Amino acid sequence: ANGIERPRDYVVSFHYNAKVEEHHFGRSHPMKPWRLQLTKQLILSYGLEYAMDMYKTRMATSDELALFHDREYLDFLAEVTPTNLLEKEKAAGKFNFGGESNDCPAFDGMWDYARLYSGASIHAAERLVNGQSDIAINWSGGLHHAGKSRASGFCYLNDIVLAILHLLKVHQRVLYIDIDVHHGDGVQDAFHSTDRVLTLSYHKYAGNDFFPGTGGVDENGPAEPDNPGARYSLNVPLEDGIDDEQYEWLFEMITGPVIEQYNPGAIVLQCGADSLGGDRLGKFNLNIRTHGFCVEFVKKTGRPLLLVGGGGYTPRNVARAWCHETALCVGADLIDELPMHVPYRQAFEGEANGDGKLYPSLHNNGVNRHVNRNNNAELKKLVAKVLTNLRYWKG
Ligand code: ZL4
Ligand code: CA
Ligand code: ZN
Q: pLDDT for 285-305, tens place per residue?
């Protein structure tokens, strides 16, 4: 050692293919893959690539995808285009495509886009399985709503389920944690009948008034007597406007005992950045350091960790959060003033955009702030209710 380099406490790998950035869901669609370009540029501007193993990932193959998805659905994804969608009306309906909502449009390059983000999560999981990485990161993944034969909520392929299937080859138990503002329904459904995957989602819940409408506190896996997966789905439904202090308290109070008692061999953390204050679709008031608190908390348990992205609809803040969380993984402290040479630095400048800082207050001086409808007494009861499930776990 020359005194400059120091041994890394964790081997961190970054899995990415920049082609994913070039895709467009269509005019004014909230999901903007170019937020990943902004994220990557912040990460490079702080020099974090020197503290990680950087991998350029390939597209997932159909055989890899068929480990979870239906062949018929995959064939449809491969064939559908904006022009032939109408001819495929029947299949489109069956696979929850296009339609009124336009949540999951058949855009040009969609099949490549979905295979790219899935390939990155699969590759990241393989690195963890082989013991080559302690923490593997794929910010282009985290598309938690996709089903076996169903697109949903901007998600076409479920890269998280595919990654967990790889982790299950060597780990008896995998814990999935989801801090996206939406419920992680696709991952929960995929593993509802096994106790080898525990799913834990924190989200806004308002029944049919907030997508996807599932994730009530009593939704803990089908309660059939012979279902080993019963009690292995945990949900933390929240009201609008939750603040930093409440969220950190809640996350620690629930995730702590869950990790201790479930004792997973590996953890997957979906870091959807739409739980931040000022998000275009989200309803919470979290700041970047609180979002990162969840990453740090899980990292400290020392288990193999897969970090994936997810939602996040105010691109400059998505980039800030995921850059900060990349730094937490490698153990770097970043200065608050963004480097002068960040490309598109204007996107981060000005009072409304965070004043050229990495950690601006996302409360926006009260302007875009959601009224906090969570009270501490209710949150206490919620914690008790969620933790009741742990008493039914065997072993
Ligand atoms: C849009 O402006 O709540 C899609 C979606 C497209 C472009 C123009 C089309 C106009 C907001 C959302 C039609 C818009 C109709 N365009 C939107 C019940 C809904 C039906 C669709 O973060 N309308 C459906 C999905 C959610 C619904 C959230 C979160 C993903 C994740 C992981 C998925 N769907 C009501 C909304 C627009 C659009 C503007 C939109 N869709 C906002 N919320 C939804 O968890 C990545
Ligand atoms: Ca969630
Ligand atoms: Zn979301």
A: 999 999 999 999 999 999 999
The CATH number covering residue 67 comes to 3.40.800.20
243-247's contacts with Cβ under 8 Å and 24+ in sequence apart are 243/285, 243/286, 243/372, 243/374, 244/285, 244/286, 244/287, 244/289, 244/290, 246/372, 246/374, 246/376, 246/379, 247/202, 247/284, 247/286, 247/290
For the question of residue 183 being annotated catalytic, the response is: yes
Q: Of 144, 183, 192, 324, which is the active-site residue? A: 183
264 alpha carbon – ligand 3 mean position (Å)? 25
With respect to residue 189, please indicate whether it lies within any of the assigned structural domains.
Answer: yes
Question: What pLDDT is attached to residue 315?
Answer: 98
Q: Any idea which ligand is nearest the CA of 308? A: 1
Predicted ipTM? Answer: 0.98
Ligand 1 site residues (CB inside 6 A) read 28-30, 101-103, 143-145, 153-155, 180, 182, 211, 272, 274, 281, 310-311
Domains contained in the chain, number: 1
